[in-house]
Amino acid sequence: MQLKVLVCACLIVAMVCGCESPVDSELAMGDSHSIDAEKARTSGGRIPLVGILPEPGSQTQYSMDGFVDYGIARVPEACSLVELDLGTAVCLRALECDKPMCTIQEKSTHMVCVSEEGVALLEIRYLIQERNDRLALIVQFQVTQDNLEIDAVSLDYIE
Length: 159
Hints:
mainly beta, three-stranded antiparallel β-sheet, 1 helix, about 55% strand, disordered N terminus
């Protein structure tokens, strides 16, 4: 039942974006199977990625519509280490036209060192494959032992 709801939600996101192919629900699932039984999952959820982003050095602006699903698990052997599973699905579209520039779909796992009271910063760069100029969606996260928040989102050219 949850899978049907997730697939419907992904299709709605794809229709709102005007993307030519629906968002891959398996890719964007935050309930990742890579967290093994020995690790204690502390939290998970979905963070929306919605807004307007300017392209650096250009007058072009892009609407962003998508989400990041996440799961956080503590690694028992290391008190300050957490495993972060991310499923990202984003559609970018130039405001001047109806055709989407791209759809970013990526799943990744990151080991992040976070103290009991602290916050770790994690930056993920999603290269936009449909462009040949190395434009990327850059998402900066704040990671705690049991929470994930987005600190900043931007477009920039990467080397």
